[in-house]
């Protein structure tokens, strides 16, 4: 299949839209002070503790953090899919102007799949093992009222083709177990974009895949973002993927966002000690001169999170104030490096210029706490 | 640093599995290499390339189809079980999933103590003392020796696995994806522990991983596996900086780097062929981005030395 033909196939499943116009526009998703907690026998776990973030069309925003930091709970909360005993206890999820938390269940069902789609880590659990992938795609299209019968089958082939599955028409008859891991994840992505969503939430979409397949899948998501103006919320623990594929990133720790801003700023000049610590943990390929420095200790028990800054017990730079008073997420003034970078226009093209940090070391510019 | 002498010699080692209907999975398909005493050899490759089977063969947890593994000059593959048993403590394995490899009904004290009791020669008091010493060496709190595996985090469980491996008094440790299931901060802790212990105790380490960044960080030498064969092996810096095999280059290009916007050129197309249907000639030729010659389709290139100690199996390198 040549690139041109595939591109054409993609056009047929693409909404006509002005990608560049939308990228500059209002966020398609704006999460405001979202809280989700889980009631356990030991007490209440505030898995998502007042997070705010926004995603614009044509933008990839990464939500980064270690296991248990609340990033997946945040993603499920946005979709209103938090399993019991979890429940959303506050905040707003403004999607395309309406608060998803205020919708009825029936209204929410019309949003899921059609306007917001999800791609999960394990494609095998996201697919029905007893149905051919073609049938699953056709069913998805029918459920979403997008197409039926022969038209749906044609659309399904075009979708499989658009996500780079060779001999798409023949693969319609394959069962999930007959496909490789990378191909399965492509099918899941085809199902995700079948309803022409505005937003895709991808929760560790490549964690189960080898690096060469990971690169293929991330390139595919990047292409869909660029060509269709898709907004992507990428949940990952992999800072390399964030650096290579996201425009902006929010770093989560113990249920809170502790740093947020353009990816270039996060990677080149991390302000928050936790973000800095995470980056120093990553072995650099071909740079044996750059030692790795572990972050000591482990994530706090979320039934009884530490007083003050939640990272303070592990922070090498903690001050007495950090153990008493919780810092707020504050907008940071430009640094010498960001000013230089902005004059070169790089930041504006990718991820904007605003960065926020929750740290007493960076008091920021007054009361822009979120 | 690396002491003199070879600890492990692998000679034309192969392990084929019958897959029914006369099909054969050629998981490890005839490979040879050495590991020097005190050296860390990193073994990298994608899922299904045979790297774990190779690790199990060297530990003789798996019987080879052909070939030899010489440990300190002794052919492990030729030894009857009774002769093998005294050698077992000298080769220890650390597994990917520390929870699955720890007995949930035993305390840390019992888990780490068992290899010591099996070895014998220690009174109970000495065993207890040594257990606490080992627990401290891997960075666990000796006060937690009475706890069970489920009371620890993933990183701590991996430390228990390391302490148990050390208890046997090994010369060679085979670590099979020891950090793959851990968070990056914990991964860094475990890598540091392994590296420190390796240097302090002069251990020889076979470090198996799919992650080139991790492998290149901890290894003196790196071997790259593809479909049951080593396609490139050499000093870590040489392999990473000047890869000779197109597969190594593709793996490097696909590995995410901490450089914003540093997007790779073209990721390798397609999937790894099935080890039940290994392509004839060079086994990488079906995915190779280089201009394939008739020779590539017909014959398999041997590992050729292209730089000091750096060998690659490619006709075009």
Brief descriptors of the model:
heterodimer; A: 370 residues; alpha/beta; eight-stranded mixed β-sheet; four-stranded antiparallel β-sheet; 21% strand; B: 317 residues; Rossmann fold; 10 helices
CATH class of chain B: Alpha Beta
Strand order in the sheet with the most strands of chain B: 6-7-8-3-9-10-12-11
The radius of gyration computed from the alpha-carbon positions of chain B, rounded to a whole number of angstroms, is 20 Å
Report the end-to-end length of chain A measured between terminal Cα atoms: 48 Å
> What is the general shape of chain A?
globular
Q: What class, by secondary structure content of chain A?
A: alpha/beta
Which regions of chain A have little confidence, pLDDT < 50, spanning 5+ residues? 1-22
Topology, element by element:
The complex is a heterodimer of chains A (370) and B (317).
Chain A lengths: L2 H10 L6 H6 L4 E12 L2 E13 L4 E5 L6 H8 L7 E10 L2 E2 L5 H7 L4 E4 L3 H4 L6 H11 L5 H14 L5 H4 L9 H14 L4 E5 L7 H18 L2 E6 L2 H7 L2 E6 L2 E7 H6 L4 H9 L47 E3 L4 H8 L2 H4 L6 E3 L12
Parallel strand pairs in A: 3-8, 3-9, 6-7, 7-8
Antiparallel strand pairs in A: 1-2, 1-4, 4-5, 9-10, 10-12, 11-12
Helix pairs in contact in A: 1-7, 6-7, 6-9, 7-9, 9-10
Chain B lengths: L5 E13 L5 E13 L3 E5 L6 H8 L7 E6 L2 E2 L5 H4 L6 E4 L13 H12 L4 H14 L16 H14 L4 E5 L7 H18 L2 E6 L2 H7 L2 E6 L2 E7 H6 L4 H9 L39 H5 L5 E4 L2 E3 L5
Parallel strand pairs in B: 3-8, 3-9, 6-7, 7-8
Antiparallel strand pairs in B: 1-2, 1-4, 4-5, 9-10, 10-12, 11-12
Question: What report would you give on this structure?
Answer:
The complex is a heterodimer of chains A (370) and B (317). Chain A is an alpha/beta fold and 370 residues long. Chain A has helices spanning 3-12, 19-24, 71-78, 105-111, 123-126, 133-143, 149-162, 168-171, 181-194, 211-228, 239-245, 263-268, 273-281, 336-343, 346-349, and strands at 29-40, 43-55, 60-64, 86-95, 98-99, 116-119, 199-203, 231-236, 248-253, 256-262, 329-331, 356-358. Chain A is globular, with a radius of gyration of 21 Å. The model of chain A is unreliable at 1-22 (pLDDT under 50). The mean pLDDT of chain B is 90. In chain B, α3 crosses α4 (124-137), α3 runs parallel beside α5 (154-167) and α5 (154-167) runs parallel beside α6. In chain B, the strands form 2 sheets. Chain B has an 8-stranded mixed sheet, with helices on both faces. A 4-stranded antiparallel sheet of chain B has the order 2-1-4-5. Chain B has one domain (6-312): Rossmann fold, CATH 3.40.50.300. Chain B has helices spanning 51-58, 81-84, 108-119, 124-137, 154-167, 184-201, 212-218, 236-241, 246-254, 294-298; strands at 6-18, 24-36, 40-44, 66-71, 74-75, 91-94, 172-176, 204-209, 221-226, 229-235, 304-307, 310-312. The A-B interface holds A 66-67, 180-183, 210-216, 219, 222, 237-241, 243-245, 263-264, 267-268, 277-286, 288, 292-296, 298, 350 and B 46-47, 153, 155, 183-189, 191-192, 210-214, 216-218, 236-237, 240-241, 250-264, 267-269, 271-272.
């Amino acid at each position: 299949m040549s690139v041109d033909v595939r591109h054409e196939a993609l056009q047929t499943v693409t909404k006509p839209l002005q990608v560049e116009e939308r990228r500059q526009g209002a966020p398609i998703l704006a999460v405001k002070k979202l809280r989700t907690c889980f009631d356990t026998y030991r007490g209440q776990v505030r898995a998502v503790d007042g997070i705010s973030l926004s995603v614009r069309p044509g933008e990839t925003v990464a939500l980064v953090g270690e296991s248990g930091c609340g990033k997946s709970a945040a993603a499920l909360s946005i979709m209103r899919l938090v399993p019991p005993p979890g429940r959303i206890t506050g905040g707003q999820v403004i999607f395309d102007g309406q608060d998803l938390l205020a919708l009825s269940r029936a209204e929410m069902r019309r949003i899921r799949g059609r306007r917001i789609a999800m791609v999960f880590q394990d494609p095998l659990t996201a697919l029905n093992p007893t149905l051919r992938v073609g049938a699953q795609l056709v069913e998805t299209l029918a459920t979403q009222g997008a197409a039926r019968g022969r038209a749906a089958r044609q659309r399904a082939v075009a979708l499989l083709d658009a996500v780079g599955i060779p001999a798409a028409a023949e693969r319609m008859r394959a069962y999930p177990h007959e496909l490789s891991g990378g191909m399965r994840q492509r099918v899941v992505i085809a199902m995700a974009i079948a309803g022409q969503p505005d937003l895709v939430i991808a929760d560790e979409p490549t964690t189960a895949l080898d690096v060469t397949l990971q690169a293929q899948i991330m390139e595919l998501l990047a292409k869909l973002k660029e060509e269709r103006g898709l907004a992507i919320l990428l949940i990952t623990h992999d800072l390399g993927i964030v650096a290579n594929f996201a425009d902006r990133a929010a770093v989560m720790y113990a249920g809170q966002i502790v740093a947020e801003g353009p990816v270039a700023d996060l990677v080149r000049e991390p302000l928050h000690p936790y973000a800095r610590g995470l980056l120093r943990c990553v072995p650099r390929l071909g740079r044996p001169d750059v030692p790795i420095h572990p972050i000591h200790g482990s994530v706090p028990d979320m039934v009884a999170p530490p007083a003050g800054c939640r990272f303070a017990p592990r922070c090498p730079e903690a001050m007495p104030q950090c153990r008493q008073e919780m810092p707020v997420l504050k907008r940071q003034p430009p640094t010498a490096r960001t000013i230089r970078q902005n004059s070169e226009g790089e930041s504006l093209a990718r991820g904007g210029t605003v960065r926020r940090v929750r740290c007493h070391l960076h008091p920021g510019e007054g009361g822009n706490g979120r | 640093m690396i002491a003199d002498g070879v600890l492990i010699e692998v000679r034309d080692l192969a392990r084929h599995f019958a897959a029914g209907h006369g099909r054969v999975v050629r998981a490890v398909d005839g490979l040879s290499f050495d590991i020097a005493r005190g050296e860390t050899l990193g073994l990298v490759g994608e899922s299904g390339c045979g790297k774990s089977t190779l690790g199990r063969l060297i530990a003789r947890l798996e019987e080879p189809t052909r070939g030899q593994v010489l440990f300190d000059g002794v052919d492990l593959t030729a030894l009857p079980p009774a002769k093998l048993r005294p050698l077992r403590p000298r080769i220890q394995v650390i597994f990917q999933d520390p929870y699955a490899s720890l007995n949930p009904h035993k305390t840390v004290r019992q888990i780490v103590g068992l290899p010591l009791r099996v070895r014998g020669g220690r009174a109970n008091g000495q065993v207890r003392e040594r257990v606490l010493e080992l627990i401290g060496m891997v960075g666990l709190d000796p006060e937690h020796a009475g706890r069970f595996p489920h009371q620890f985090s993933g990183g701590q469980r991996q430390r228990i696995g390391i302490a148990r491996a050390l208890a046997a008094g090994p010369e060679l440790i085979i670590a099979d994806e020891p950090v793959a299931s851990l968070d990056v901060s914990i991964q860094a802790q475990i890598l540091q522990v392994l590296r420190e212990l390796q240097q302090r105790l002069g251990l020889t380490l076979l470090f198996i991983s799919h992650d080139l960044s991790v492998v290149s960080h901890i290894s003196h030498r790196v071997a790259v596996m593809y479909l049951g064969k080593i396609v490139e092996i050499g000093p870590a810096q040489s392999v990473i900086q000047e890869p000779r095999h197109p597969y190594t280059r593709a793996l490097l290009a696909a590995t995410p780097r901490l450089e914003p916007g540093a997007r790779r050129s073209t990721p390798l197309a397609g999937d790894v062929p099935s080890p039940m249907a290994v392509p004839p000639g060079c086994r990488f030729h079906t995915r190779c981005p280089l201009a394939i010659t008739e020779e590539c389709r017909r014959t398999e290139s041997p590992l050729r030395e292209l730089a000091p100690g750096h060998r690659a199996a490619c006709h075009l390198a």
